Amino acid sequence: xxxxxxxxxxxxxxxxxxxxxxxxxxxxxxxxxxxxxxxxxxxxxxxxxxxxxxxxxxxxxxxxxxxx
Length: 68
Fold this sequence. Notes:
By secondary structure, the chain is an all-alpha fold. It is built from one helix and no strands.
């Protein structure tokens, strides 16, 4: 991954995809709701990986909203 910072929070995304070590990342086994990509600026889409913290937070917030 070219940019190692999350486009949502700006912290390191810890992406390992394309690193050459084993070319897999934590994100390859995760499900990303389509709505989370609406939080990513247009210039970062398909260029910067969302971090696990933002993904977990988003999923928790969505479950709260879904129950209301």
